[in-house]
Design a protein that fits this description.
single chain; about 950 residues; mainly alpha; five-stranded mixed sheet; three-stranded antiparallel sheet
Amino acid sequence: MKKTGMLLAALFPVLLSAQIVQPGLVLLMNSGKTPLADVEISAPGADPVLSAANGWYTLEFKSKSNGDFARISVQKPGYEVVNGTALYHSDLNPDNTIYVIMCPAGEMERRLNDLAERHEKPLKQVYQDQTARFQADPVTHADTLARLEMAYYARLDALRNFNDNLVTTNLDDVSDLRREAMTLYEQGSIDAAIALLEEQRISTPLKGADGRDSVDGYQTTWAWIDKASLYAIKGDLPNAKDCYRKAIAVDTSDGDPMMRFAYFLNSQGQYDEVEALYTAAFQRIEKPDFKGIILMNLGAFYKNSGNIESSEKSYQAALQLYRGLSLDNPEAFRYLEAEALINLGELYYAARRMNDAETVFGEALVVYRQLLQTYPKDYQARLAYTLYYLALSQHALQKLQEAERAYQESRNLYAALAGEDPAFLANHASLSYHLGIFYEQNQQAAEALAAYQMAVEEYRVVAAQGNGDVLYYLAESLSSMGEIYYKQQRFLEAEKAYREALDAYRAAPVIDPDQRRLDLAVTLFNLGNARNDLQKYAEALTAYTESIALFRQLAADYPDQFNADCADALFNLGNVYLALDSLQQAGNAYTSALELYRQYEEVHPGTVKVKIANVSYNLGVILKSAERFADAEKAYLEALTIYRQFAVQNPEAFDPEVASALYQLHEVYLAEKKNDDAEKALQEAYAIYNNQAQKGSESARVNAANCAAGLGVFYHGEGRRKEAEEAFLAELSLWRSLANSNPEAYNSRLALSLNNLAVQYELNKKYPLALNFYEESINLRNTALLAGKSDELPEWQRIHTNLIQVRDSSLFYEDYLTAVEATRIAAESCDKLKAIDPSIRKNVVVHYYNLAWVALFARRYELAEDAANRALEADPEQYHTYARLGHALCLQGKKKAAQKAYGHLKGRTDKKGKPYKQALLVQFELLETEGIVPPGGWKGMREWVEKW
């Protein structure tokens, strides 16, 4: 989209007389004046005609008078119009020829590219050479770099405007001398072009395109203006200003050079003379439409200077002027009325006066829709632009349906325009980006992501075509896309988007160095977050470190604004060091963050208090790990105090933080032997979590369970067994409820809780309860191991060991029932898992063998028989097991089956060489002593064995 402003002055040439019949001439742009035939010429109110062989044409208007404006349309396949703006609205005058300059299609773009190639590269190289000396120390030389950047982009702006004007100007409508100078410039000889323009003197009669003498001195005025542009391109701003002043001096009654000089100074950021020059130009120029142009430029000047009131007055004056002119001549001035509305709307939008902005953009929309009825294609771009700003205003006013409609219509218009002219692809990308913002703010993440993705794709295309100006918007779109990916926990995609955004920001033209630093700092911060979540800790550290360096530069100049941002990055840096167990580095980062947060809090009370609490909390973790318990206590207490303050107003959000700090404090108090304080802190934490758990919070139930476990351990250590048992029961209840709803996530914790409670019951001599919980716990571990969760094996072994200890302890106290249950649970668990581990497979035989013996003393003869058979099934070579099988059968009165079992031992010896016969006789006596006898006693079986 081309810039508007003072250059609109070229639309209105000064003509003298009036008539209905208007002559014209079509010429081909070259070194001579070649006529162009068969060009279709048309205008509203006149019949279309073709140019003759000599290039001449005549338009006959039926309802226009001398001096009226007419918009002339020129078409010829394979050609384009060079001086299109001069034809946009022309004064009709039969005494003056309207010249049309054409060139082959694509010629203007080629010339512009050639000019850019020839002149922009040297300009950029000079800038790079200048900045290279200072970039090693960008902090010290920040001001110098900023000035160099401003000067570079001022020269680049002057170069591009001059090139654009040169290519689109009627070169045959000026002197041969100027045309030769411009040819030298195009060839890269700026100094030679300036020297040639120096030959123009006010006393030299100059020839116009029609061969007649021009007004004496007019071309010299333009010579000074041309030289001013060339000096600006060279970077010689003093000479450029001097040339503008000499252009004004040629004819002090001419307001045009004053207007151009004001525009030049404004673009260079030199504002002292701008207002006075525009005012002087306004007083000298008589044509009302030109006065409107000055008012528009003044409005822009005041707006950029921050003088909103004066800007509004200037734009309103321009609007009223154009509205008055439109009443008499709508064809010429209606579009300028719309432009004034657009400028006024942009002012209101920038001033956040959204209701006013919506109103004037709506008025401009009506005008453009009316213009489109007469000129279907010519105002589509302005209509799309107006809809875009209307959508922005309605979006800000939360008129969401209206805003979405306006966004979509604008986007569709730009899509159609981009289909014919790729230059509009950037506009379509911009609409996609803002639609993404719209959808994101309205919680439509899928739609927002799709819009951002389209914007990114289109900006990439535009950037690849050499339009570096869109790199900043590409970076913004990528950054927004990365934020959505991050929220969706698509961290790899977020990282990729942030990395590309970073490259785009670095490659984008730098207009505001501070904004550039901020963009880079924020993107690096976000990149660090993505890498942190991907556990790419080393790369996260790199990103955070660079982000911190940039935030420190900003904070050095704007501490009230950026200290908090710098602290955020330091806090996250500390978190990465904490994850890497680099505790000293983490502590240093947290300490620096805390200092910056406190400085910011002094200036902006209440804004970062919670962040101070968060850093203090994490610092407490570091200090506790370093066993600096007094310092850790102080840090946790600071965090706790702040969390309590916020919990008063927002308990749902901050009660968990209070509880978390209390939990950490209880551990510090325990280390300091402050047991009473530790108990109080943990009890309060448990009460908070338990209260939230009752409301259905899953995380609160988890934390409450952990607190209950902590209380159980504490009471156990204090010897308060009843309270320990109650705490462990509360813990178990919580884990059981969690496991019921999500067994995959919580069965392991449930199993651990069951084991802990079983241990407590065992210590309290409540063996049946202990064994029930041991059995449930080991069964949960069995299920997990059979499902392939090998990491559960150490916990299974812990329960297995506890069961064996219960068995051994019970046997010592001759509690055979308990010993039997402990052995049975261990044996059955090993039997289920025998395929997953060799050591477990060996235990199957051992446990069933022992169970077959212990069950006899518990009078569980059928169980003893089953255990013996299972032991033999696992290892038939364990012959001594037949003795226990025989005992179990004999005690059940199954004499023949018992003799068959005993018979496996006849004539055999054990590993020590002793006959099994002797062992059987000893066992008969032992069982008889314990009162364990079969029907009829052991006598008959003893006599049968003695006969072996």
